[in-house]
Amino acid sequence: MRNILETYPNYHAELEAVRQNGLRMETLRQIIRRHAGNASKTRRLYDRYQTLDYAVPIYNRAPRFESEAEAINNKVMNDFFSEIIETKVGYFAGNPVTYGYSETKESQEVTGGELAVKAAQKAITDFTTLNNMHDVDIETTKLASICGYAGRLFYIDSEGQERALVCLPWEVIVLSDSSIMEPEFAVRYLKLQDLDGCDYYHVDFYDSKNITSYEGSSIDSLREIYTRPHLFDYCPLQAVPNNLEMMGDTERVEELIDAYDNAVSDANNEIESFANAYMVFENVNLDDEEIAKAQKSGAIKFYTGGGNGRVYFLTKQTNDGFIEHHLDRLQENIYRFSKTPDLSSDSFGTSSGIALKFKILGLETKCGMFEAKVKTANNYMFKLLASSWAKKRVFVDPLQCTMEFSRNFPLDLASEANTCATLINCGLPKQVAFSQLSFIDDVDYVMELIEQEEDGIPKLDASEPKAEQEQEEEEEKPEKEVEEEGANELEEKR
Questions:
Q1: Are residues 430 and 373 in the same domain?
Q2: Residue 430 forms part of a structural domain
Q3: Within a domain: residue 342?
Q4: Using CB atoms within 10 A of its CB, is residue 69 exposed (0-12), middle (13-18) or buried (19+)?
Q5: Which candidate, 173, 234, 133, 238, places its Cα nearest to that of 33?
Q6: CA 439/CA 427 separation, integer angstroms
Q7: Are 292 and 116 in contact (CB under 8 A)?
Q8: Separation CA 460–CA 451 (nearest Å)
Q9: pLDDT confidence of 282, banded at 50, 70, 90?
């Protein structure tokens, strides 16, 4: 059951206090204390993704029969957790996001002309290349999918370049009236160690102009150490939520995963218990010493005294069909409620492109909602970066910055080609038909290539090569004309 204390806290009171009186030490301590429950939740979810012992319930399960010294207690962990996360990350962020700047007439007008647009495009390209934004997007998606949200910090390095850093969610606190994607103030607090191995806290408070840093052996002993400008016009520490509720993709199915782990572990216990089957001596009078020898040697010799004595093993009967049905139902519900396709299913390898799209409809819906959050966060990112670029006399309108997302979906090229050919045969323009091909990013460029190829093909009515034309004309000349030309050439030589 979800604990209400684990949800992201409401910092309206603290936000208003900072607006009215600036940041006071007691307000900072109150902000960090209120974030403790959310920090514990996000850290636990991330540690479970890493399969740390304390965070995986099955690893902490006690034996069912604690009185037995050698009780069977298998602890089998089935890693649905990481599969759910990595399937989404691969599908959503496997293909890089294409960042750019609009080249429309409107864009040129608001930016300051064609040269200004080129400068804006270069600034964006340099930023995405320097920071490897594909990796930043992957890590942001992963942390948001695990913990419910991810942090992103933007800063200016020693060379004056704008940089992006993905921050762990339990280290980030955002204060805002609107959303954590558009911060007014933000806090990042870290637990570190000095050279002597002693723990201490380092806290950075961000506003629209400055970074104020604090340090102390505990939250209660924090003291200000310095204040410096961060060179942006807005708060540079934001958060990217997975959804409005800031829930991770696995939170709704954690109990189902735990039930699956328990069921598999219990099944293993049943299988292993066959090796510990009880040896039954029926109508046989043996003392404990003789029984121990029989168990050790495997050979049994006894006298029944005329009775029907026998020795056999007592084993437990297991309902395999019931166990398999139970595990199948749990697995189905895990994938169903987490909106994750079961990629191990045999049907994926034989399904058509349309069938595959229906199979991943839940994943696509989930990724579509997350894409909306990422776009909002990126709009703020470009707004922040534009304030820094303006100081370098590079004007960038954040509203003209573009981003194109493409899913990492297996392509059915044969089906797409047939669809494209059908559209052309129906009379639609080639440009419209080619736009339906997923592997074509720039339809206009493809149309230019087609025109260039068509221009390079000789026309049907083009004149034939001169040599061949002259040869045919020579063959068609009357014999008299040939004789006259020969006589004239002879006269000239004389």
A1: no
A2: yes
A3: no
A4: exposed
A5: 173
A6: 22
A7: no
A8: 17
A9: confident
**pLDDT value, residue 463:** 47
130 shares its domain with 179: yes
CB atoms < 10 A from the CB of 339, how many? 20
Same domain, 292 and 398: no
Which range of residues forms the domain containing residue 301?
A: 278-314
What's the mean pLDDT in 195-208?
A: 95
Are residues 173 and 307 part of one domain?
A: no
Mean pLDDT of 415-422: 79
Residue 214 parent element (H or E): strand 210-216
Q: Are residues 126 and 228 in the same domain?
A: yes
pLDDT tens by residue, 227-241: 999 999 999 999 999
Strand, helix or coil for residue 211: strand
How far out from the chain centre does Cα 417 lie?
30
Query: Which position has the token pair 């201490």?
Result: 200
Q: What percent of the chain has pLDDT over 90?
A: 60
Cα separation, 350 vs 347, in Å, equals 5
Structural domain tally of the chain?
3
Which amino acid, residue 334?
I
| Range with lowest mean pLDDT among 243-247, 254-258, 357-361 | 357-361
In this structure, is residue 92 part of a structural domain? yes
Judged against a pLDDT cut of 60, whether residue 482 lies above it is answered with no
Cβ atoms within 10 Å, residue 15: 18
Together in a domain, 98 and 169:
yes
- Please indicate whether residue 9 or residue 142 has the higher confidence score (pLDDT): 142
d(Cα 217, Cα 238) in Å, to the nearest integer? 26
408 to 91, 341, 367, 418, 443: CA distances (angstroms) = 5, 14, 11, 22, 20
Instruction: Report the amino acid identity of residue 184.
Output: E
Q: Look up the pTM and report it.
A: 0.79
Residue 494 Cα to chain centre, angstroms: 92
Q: Which two tokens stand for residue 277?
A: 């089957």
